[in-house]
Amino acid sequence: MQLLVKIGETIGWTTLGVCLLYFGITLYDRLDPIDYSAEIRKGNIAAGIKVSALIFGLTAIIITVLIT
What is the percentage of the chain residues whose pLDDT exceeds 70? Predict the structure, then answer.
């Protein structure tokens, strides 16, 4: 029984983390006037680096919040 509770908690925290990451990226997309998806499709490496840095930064913040 205790195993099922731990699995449920893990699924819940994972879902929360993914939702927070999604909303953070969506908020950044709405606030920044540049369409990074289109730029990445065109082959703009700088746009890809910026988006990956955004994802890494948001992930670090979310992990820190969930751990503490």
Answer: 100
